[in-house]
User: Which sequence fits this backbone?
C-alpha cells in the first residue's frame, strides 16, 4: 500500500544530496567552516549508499581543503576522528582512504623534493619548468629519474 505523499528511497536520497550541495555552496565562505563541515558530515551519514557517501565526502573535503584553502588538513583529520567515534563504517572507510591518499601524497612530495635537491647539486638550480615537471611526476617516475641522476651527464638524460 502506497501512502499518499510518501517519498521513495530515491526521492529521499536525492533530497539529502541536493541539500548537501546547496549547503556546501552556501556555507563555503562562512565564518565557521569547521562547524559547517560538521553539519555536512552529519548529512553525509544519512546517505544509505556507502560508495556514494564516500565519493561525496571526498569531493566535499577536497573542495573545502584544497579548493578554498579555508580549512587545514589537520583540522579535517581531527573532525573526521571525532565523527568516527560512533563507529560509522562510511566514515571509517573514508578515513582509511584519506590517510592512504595522504601517505601517497607525502611520498610523492618527499621524492620530488629530494630529486630537486639532487638536480641542483649536480646540474645547478633547475628552471621553473623542471621544478613543475618534477613536482607533478608520480612516485614511479621520480624513482626512475633518481636512479638516472647517478650516471647522467646532463639534466636532459635524467628526465628523458
Assistant:
Amino acid at each position: 500500500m502506497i501512502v499518499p505523499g510518501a517519498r521513495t528511497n530515491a526521492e529521499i536520497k536525492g533530497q539529502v544530496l541536493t541539500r548537501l550541495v546547496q549547503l556546501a555552496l552556501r556555507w563555503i565562505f562562512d565564518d565557521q567552516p569547521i562547524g559547517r563541515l560538521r553539519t555536512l558530515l552529519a548529512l553525509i551519514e544519512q546517505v544509505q549508499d556507502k560508495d556514494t557517501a564516500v565519493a561525496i565526502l571526498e569531493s566535499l573535503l577536497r573542495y573545502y581543503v584544497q579548493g578554498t584553502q579555508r580549512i587545514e588538513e589537520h583540522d579535517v583529520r581531527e573532525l573526521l576522528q571525532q565523527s568516527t567515534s560512533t563507529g560509522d563504517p562510511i566514515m571509517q572507510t573514508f578515513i582509511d582512504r584519506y590517510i592512504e591518499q595522504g601517505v601517497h601524497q607525502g611520498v610523492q612530495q618527499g621524492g620530488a623534493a629530494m630529486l630537486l635537491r639532487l638536480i641542483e647539486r649536480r646540474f645547478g638550480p633547475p628552471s621553473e619548468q623542471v621544478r613543475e615537471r618534477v613536482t607533478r611526476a608520480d612516485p614511479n617516475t621520480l624513482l626512475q629519474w633518481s636512479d638516472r641522476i647517478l650516471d647522467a651527464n646532463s639534466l636532459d638524460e635524467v628526465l628523458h
Observations:
- The two ends are 68 Å apart (CA to CA).
- The first helix runs from residue 9 to 27.
- The chain has two domains: 1-86, 98-160.
